[in-house]
Design brief:
Blueprint: E1 2-7, H1 11-28, E2 32-37, H2 41-46, E3 52-55, H3 64-74, E4 80-84, H4 90-93, E5 100-103, H5 108-128, E6 129-134, E7 137-142, E8 146-152, E9 155-160, E10 169-172, H6 175-181, E11 187-191, E12 194-197, E13 201-205, E14 208-211, E15 216-218, H7 224-234
Parallel strand pairs: 1-2, 1-3, 3-4, 4-5
Antiparallel strand pairs: 6-7, 8-9, 8-12, 9-10, 11-12, 13-14, 14-15
Length: 239
């Protein structure tokens, strides 16, 4: 399921856009859950992340461009599509890294082309980033920066590259669920409580895994052979 946020103060326009999203989902066999708001304040205040955001520009209070600038301060990667009758703002949209523009009234043909583009961006984001919910708010973390993730009680502890002097990121979560989310990337589960990024492994010997940040981790006896095989395959047999 994909989480979509629609910020549109015209109820009729919002209904029309919801119908287009539903049609696209039915044709592509994709499930979308759409949240709607008549202004941008709930989106910006909540700092909640979504898979895709549709934003009108001519909004009450904070306009769409201002809202997009604030959105980018905590989520630099979410695909953002402006749906507006103010086509003259198109150039400014690139300053907030908008994925595209759709000018009202919206035809399904133009909408579906933008959605194809958005789905490619979403797939790329899901491979390249994870969203970590910390005490101080949501943070979008590039997968390449994750050295390893371990569990403590019911929390996930994210150790990030270049942050040896900082507190690691901590959030409630399941390591098994995170493993599935990161499937297809350079990650391997070395024990029931630790998932490592193979791009950050310096060496592995007799179950001892040395990371490039100086951490020393240990593969469980049950997983040792599978981990060694995975490393060997990943590095082309160079281990």
């Amino acid at each position: 399921m994909y989480q979509v946020m629609m910020v549109e103060d015209d109820a009729r326009a919002a209904d029309d856009l919801c119908a287009l999203i539903a049609r696209y989902g039915a044709e592509q066999h994709i499930e979308f859950k759409v949240a709607r708001s008549e202004n941008a304040v709930p989106l910006i205040k909540s700092h909640r992340t979504y898979d895709l955001v549709f934003m009108d520009i001519d909004l009450p209070g904070i306009n769409g461009m201002e809202a997009a600038e604030l959105l980018r301060t905590y989520d630099p990667t979410v695909p953002l599509i402006f749906v507006t009758n103010l086509a003259q703002y198109a150039v400014r949209g690139y300053q907030v890294d908008a994925l595209d523009f759709i000018v009202k009234p919206v035809s399904y043909y133009h909408f579906s082309m933008r959605m194809d583009k958005a789905m490619r961006a979403i797939a790329r984001n899901r491979r390249e980033h994870v969203t970590v919910s910390t005490r101080s708010g949501l943070r979008v973390v590039p997968c390449a920066e994750i050295v390893y993730v371990e569990t403590q009680a019911h929390d996930l502890i994210y150790r990030l590259a270049g942050s040896a002097d900082e507190e690691p990121l901590r959030m409630r979560g399941s390591l098994s669920a995170l493993e599935k989310e990161l499937a297809g990337g350079p990650f391997v589960r070395i024990s029931s409580s630790c998932l490592v990024n193979m791009d950050h492994v310096r060496s592995m010997q007799a179950g001892e895994v040395r990371m490039d940040d100086g951490s020393v981790l240990y593969a469980s006896r049950a997983k040792k052979k599978a981990v060694l095989d995975t490393f060997a395959d990943y590095l082309g047999g160079s281990i």
